[in-house]
Design a protein that fits this description.
- There is one protein chain.
- The protein has 284 residues and is α/β, with parallel strands linked by helices.
- It has two domains: 3-158, no CATH class; 171-277, Rossmann fold (3-Layer(aba) Sandwich), CATH 3.40.50.
- Helix content is 50%, strand content 11%.
- The chain has helices at residues 9-14, 16-25, 47-52, 54-66, 82-86, 94-104, 115-132, 135-144, 151-158, 178-183, 189-195, 218-221, 223-240, 250-262, 272-277, and strands at residues 3-4, 36-37, 40-43, 70-72, 110-112, 148-150, 171-174, 201-202, 244-247, 268-271.
- A four-stranded parallel beta sheet has the order 4-3-5-6, sandwiched between helices. The protein has a four-stranded parallel beta sheet with strand order 8-7-9-10, with helices on both faces. It has a two-stranded antiparallel ribbon with strand order 1-2.
- Helix 14 (250-262) links the parallel strand 9 (244-247) and strand 10.
- Helix 7 (115-132) runs antiparallel to helix 8 and helix 13 (223-240) crosses helix 14 (250-262).
- The longest helix is centred in the middle third of the chain and has 18 residues, at 115-132.
- The chain is globular and about 55 Å long.
Length: 284
Amino acid sequence: MLRLTSHHPVIRATCPVAICTHAARYGAEATAAEEVVMPHASLFVPCYIDTLFPEAAIAMTRVLERVGVDLDFPRAQTCCGQMHVNTGYADDVDHLLRNFLKVFEHAEHVVAPSASCVATVRHMYPDMAKRSGDPALIDAVDALTPRVKEFSEYLVDDLGITDVGASFPHSVTYHPACHATRLLGVGDRPLQLLRNVAGIRLKDMPRANECCGFGGTFAVKNAEISAAMLADKVADVIHAGAEVVVASDNSCLMHIAGGLQRQRTAVRTLHLAEVLASQEGVPA
């Protein structure tokens, strides 16, 4: 377990609030002489992020290390099985579910930069365990799933941090991903974090809570409907007038980016973690 004091360069130089937050959480005095036991988290990096958007996972790691979280990355982790479940092959996910439990069984917290994959673990795994009729599996799922957190949830709820010492001097509009909003109930946690980024200019997006139309295999099975929903979302992003659109799921951002590129706009897409990892001299 990592132990930091207020003299530690990470705390002193990048996020002075962290030592006070964690000291209060663990009942310690935030003084130079006092040591504070910092939290530990295991990184869960979904397969599509590992393959297509590793920069989001790297950014999440930078932010968590900046605020003093002791991290590990279990290499035996695999796909959570979301694609299988969404296409009707839930029974084929049993081995993936059991592997997830084995890999993260002893984790203090499991943190991921993907609301959709966290939603799979927290909402779909319990149903699959119950269908299996295996009491041991049900107990193991019930014990682990409450500790699996989406990135912004972990920062705001578990660490009590809304200011991570980020700097991002650009205009930003935020897209609330469906899984984050409807399944996890993440609410305004990402916005709480964005509002404390130095130099940022937040712009409201019209109809922000409307789906972008991706929905994983939905975009393949219902391509015309998905394209129509995407057109509406792209129009709303453009109307917001921001330089960057931010979300907590790279799958949504990938879909939105495709629509923006076809419109030949200059609007960029960035994961929430990439904005929070940005600092003066280390831009996203």
